[in-house]
Specification:
Chain lengths: 195, 503
C-alpha cells in the first residue's frame, strides 16, 4: 500500500513538473556541464518593482534544477540570490550577491543583473556523466523575497514548554510565513545530454 | 471480530472522538480569538507607519543634505559676486562648516580640477559610524565654472533601523496574512493527533478485548468438555484480573469434580468388593466345619492294622485342620471387611488419636514379633496445638493401625535384628490436618504407588490385600485423601490429609 502511495506522489510531482510553462533557454556545454541562459525578469511585476524601490532590503532568488525526462529526480541544482536595497541616500541600488556588492543605477539594471541569467553553470560534470545520451530538461524557480530558513528560525521561535505538537506546527507555520511573496516557475524544452 | 470486541471498540472510539473532537472545537475557537487579538490590522498598520516614518526621516535627512549643499553653493556664489576673487573663501567655508552639522567637508575646485579652497571637519573617533556622500554643485564665475563638492554624512544607524523596522513589518504582514491558516494548522495537527490516538486506542482495545474474549471462549469450550464428561481439562491462568480469577475458579471446580468422582468411583468399587467379600465369606465359612469334622471322624474311627494308612490319615487331618484354620482367618478378614461400618464423624483432636495409637504400639510390636516385641523403634508425635477435624476415631485408628502394622512388618523384615524405625506424626496446616506414617523399610516401588490401595492387591505372602483398601475407604469417608510416596528415611511414607474443622 505504501509503495503505491509513494508511486502516486512521485507520479503526481512528475506530471506537475511536466506541465510547467516552456521557455527558451540558451544551453551550451562546457567541460561536461551545461551553461544555461534564460530570463526570469517577468518575476518583477508592478508590485515587486514597487517593493524593490521601497528602500527596504529585498531578496531575489533563482534556482535552476536539471531533471531527466519523465522523472522528478533532480540531477543537479544551482541557486543564487541577490539582496537588493534602494539606497535612499545615494538614490541608487545596492545589490549584494554572496560576499560581493555592487551599485546599480536603475531597477532594470538590477533585474538584468539578478533575473537575466547568462552562462550559469547548472551543476558539476559528474552529475551528467552517467546520463550521457539521455533526454533531460531544466526547471527554473524564481522567487521574490523568500525568508531564508536560518532567518525564519530566528524570527519565529517555538515557545518553551512541553507542548508536544508545538514544534511540528511551528515548522508548518514557519514554512507558510517564510515562503516567497511571488514565485514563477518554468522549464526548458527537452534536450539530450551530450555523448 | 466478536460482538463483545465490537462493543468495546465502539465505546473506545466514541469516547476518544467525543473528547478530542470537543477539545479541537474549543482549541480552534481559542486560537482564532488569540490571533484576532494578537495579530490585528491596527498593529500591522502601525508597523507600516513606523517604516514610513523612518523612511521619511531618511528622506528628510537627504533633503537636508541637499539644502545644506545648496546653501553652500549660494554662499560661495554670493561671496564671489561680492569680492570677485577666491582668496577669502577658506574663512567662508569654515563658517559654513560650523553652521551645518551634516556637512563634513567642502572642497572648491576650478574647471581644471585644481583645489581653490577646502575645509574638513576633524574626525571624531567616538562618534557613531556615518554614511557619507558628496553633493556636487557648480558656480558660474567670471573666470569660468567652479565645482563645489559638499561632503555630507548621517549616522548609519538610521539606515539600519529602517531595515529592522522593514523586516518586522514584513514578518508581521506575513503573519497577518496567514493568521487564519495558522489556526487551521493547529486544528489539523490536533486532528491528526486525534486520529492517531483513535487508531492507537483501537489497536490497544482490540488487543485487550481479544485477549479477554479468547479466554472467555476457551472457558466456554472447556465447560462444554466438562459437560461431556472430560474432567481432566485445565485452563492456563495468566495476568491477575477478573478473568483469571474466573479461570482459576473453573479449574478448582473441575479439580474438585474430578476428585469427587474419583472418590465416589473408589467407594462404589469398595462397596462392590465388600459385597463380594461378604458372599465369599458366607460360601466358604459354611462348609469349613463339616470338612474339619469329617477329617477328624475319619482319623478317629479308623481301627485297622495298617500303620502306614493310619499315618497318612493323621497327616491328612493335620493338613486339613491347618488349611481350614487359614480359611477361617481369611473368612474372618473378609467378613470384617464386608461388615466395615460407615464412618460416624464427630469433632475430634488428631492428637488424641495419636495418643491412642501410641497405646496400641506394644501390642502390634508383639504381634509382629510373634510373641516377643519386634526390635523396631516406633515414635509417635503430635503438634502442641490441638488439630480439630471431623472424624470417627475408632475407624480412623483402625486405618492408622493398619498403616503402622504394615510399616513395622516392613522394617522388621529389612532389619530383623534391630535398626528399624517408624515415625507416626500428626500435624496441621492452615487448611488441613495430617497423619503421617513413615519408615526406613524397603519402601514401595514407584510403579505400584497407584495400585496399593486397590482391594486384594498385596505384596506379602500371607496378605489379603484388604488393609490399605480399608485405610483408603475410611479416609475417603472422612472427606480426606491418602497418599503414598518415598519417606526421607528411604522407606515408604503414607500421608492422610483431613480437612480442618471450620471454626
Amino acid at each position: 500500500m505504501r509503495y503505491w502511495l509513494a508511486a502516486l506522489v512521485l507520479l503526481t510531482a512528475t506530471v506537475a513538473q511536466s506541465q510547467l510553462p516552456l521557455r527558451d533557454f540558451g544551453v551550451t556545454w562546457s567541460r561536461g556541464a551545461p551553461k544555461v541562459s534564460f530570463s526570469a525578469k517577468d518575476l518583477a511585476d508592478e508590485r515587486v518593482r514597487n517593493e524593490l524601490s521601497s528602500g527596504l532590503r529585498k531578496r531575489l532568488v533563482v534556482t535552476v534544477g536539471s531533471h531527466l525526462k519523465g522523472s522528478n529526480w533532480r540531477m543537479a541544482v544551482r541557486q543564487f540570490g541577490c539582496d537588493v536595497t534602494l539606497d535612499l541616500w545615494d538614490d541608487d541600488y545596492l545589490v549584494r550577491i554572496g560576499n560581493h556588492s555592487e551599485r546599480l543605477k536603475t531597477l532594470d539594471d538590477v533585474l538584468n543583473r539578478c533575473l537575466a541569467v547568462e552562462g550559469l553553470f547548472a551543476g558539476e560534470p559528474g552529475s551528467y556523466d552517467p546520463q550521457k545520451g539521455r533526454e533531460m530538461y531544466f526547471v527554473v524557480k524564481a522567487e521574490f523575497n523568500p525568508i531564508s530558513k536560518k532567518q525564519c528560525s530566528e524570527l519565529i521561535r517555538p515557545t518553551s514548554g512541553g507542548d508536544p505538537i508545538g514544534p511540528i506546527t511551528i515548522n508548518i507555520v514557519r514554512r507558510r510565513i517564510c515562503r516567497s511573496e511571488r514565485t514563477i516557475e518554468f522549464r526548458s524544452k527537452y534536450l539530450k545530454v551530450p555523448e | 471480530m466478536s460482538r463483545f470486541e465490537r462493543k468495546i471498540l465502539f465505546a473506545i472510539g466514541l469516547s476518544v472522538f467525543l473528547t478530542l473532537g470537543g477539545s479541537i472545537f474549543l482549541a480552534r475557537g481559542a486560537l482564532r480569538e488569540v490571533y484576532r487579538v494578537g495579530v490585528n490590522e491596527r498593529f500591522g498598520a502601525e508597523l507600516v507607519h513606523g517604516v514610513e516614518a523612518r523612511r521619511g526621516q531618511l528622506m528628510a535627512l537627504r533633503s537636508g543634505s541637499e539644502q545644506a549643499a545648496d546653501a553652500v553653493e549660494w554662499a560661495v556664489e554670493a561671496e564671489l559676486a561680492k569680492r570677485r576673487h577666491t582668496s577669502k573663501l577658506d574663512a567662508l567655508l569654515q563658517d559654513l562648516l560650523g553652521r551645518y552639522a551634516m556637512v563634513q567637508g567642502i572642497r572648491v575646485e576650478d574647471a581644471a580640477g585644481r583645489e581653490v579652497a577646502s575645509v574638513a571637519r576633524e574626525a571624531d573617533p567616538s562618534s557613531a559610524v556615518m554614511r557619507t556622500t558628496t553633493r556636487d554643485r557648480e558656480v558660474e564665475t567670471g573666470g569660468g565654472k567652479l565645482r563645489i563638492a559638499v561632503e555630507v554624512a548621517v549616522p548609519e544607524v538610521y539606515f539600519e533601523r529602517l531595515q529592522e523596522a522593514g523586516e518586522v513589518a514584513d514578518v508581521y504582514s506575513r503573519l497577518q496574512r496567514q493568521s487564519a491558516s495558522v489556526s487551521d494548522v493547529y486544528v489539523w495537527a490536533f486532528g491528526l493527533m486525534a486520529f492517531l490516538v483513535i487508531v492507537v486506542a483501537f489497536l490497544i482495545g482490540a488487543v485487550v478485548s481479544r485477549r479477554v474474549t479468547r479466554r472467555v471462549t476457551a472457558l466456554a469450550e472447556a465447560s462444554r468438555q466438562v459437560g461431556a464428561g472430560d474432567l481432566t481439562v485445565t485452563l492456563p491462568t495468566g495476568a491477575k484480573d477478573e478473568v483469571t480469577e474466573l479461570t482459576q475458579a473453573f479449574n478448582d471446580m473441575v479439580s474438585d469434580l474430578h476428585d469427587s468422582r474419583t472418590r465416589i468411583e473408589y467407594l462404589q468399587r469398595i462397596s462392590a468388593w465388600q459385597d463380594f467379600a461378604r458372599r465369599l465369606a458366607h460360601e466358604i465359612k459354611n462348609p469349613l466345619t463339616p470338612i474339619q469334622l469329617a477329617a477328624q471322624e475319619l482319623d478317629d474311627t479308623y481301627d485297622g492294622e495298617n500303620e502306614a494308612y493310619r499315618k497318612k490319615l493323621k497327616h491328612a487331618r493335620a493338613i486339613i485342620e491347618e488349611e481350614v484354620a487359614t480359611l477361617r482367618r481369611l473368612v474372618g478378614e473378609f467378613s470384617a471387611f464386608a461388615k466395615l461400618p460407615r464412618a460416624d464423624l464427630t469433632p475430634s483432636d488428631l492428637c488424641d488419636l495419636s495418643h491412642s495409637i501410641q497405646d496400641s504400639v506394644p501390642a502390634i510390636l508383639e504381634d509382629v514379633g510373634q510373641g516377643t516385641p519386634a526390635p523396631v523403634e516406633v515414635r509417635v508425635s503430635c503438634a502442641t496445638e490441638p488439630i480439630y477435624v471431623r472424624m470417627d476415631p475408632m475407624m480412623l485408628k483402625r486405618g492408622v493401625d493398619n498403616l503402622l502394622r504394615n510399616a513395622i512388618q516392613a522394617v522388621h523384615e529389612k532389619h530383623p535384628s534391630g535398626g528399624g524405625r517408624v515415625l507416626v506424626r500428626a500435624y496441621g496446616t492452615r487448611t488441613a490436618g495430617f497423619i503421617e506414617v513413615r519408615d526406613n523399610g524397603p519402601g514401595v516401588p514407584k510403579e505400584d504407588w497407584d495400585r496399593v490401595f486397590d482391594p486384594y492387591y498385596t505384596s506379602k505372602a500371607e496378605g489379603t490385600g484388604l488393609g490399605l483398601a480399608i485405610v483408603k475407604k475410611v479416609v475417603l469417608e472422612h472427606g480426606g485423601e491418602v497418599r503414598l510416596d518415598r519417606a526421607p528415611e528411604g522407606g515408604a511414607r503414607f500421608s492422610i490429609e483431613l480437612p480442618l474443622m471450620e471454626t
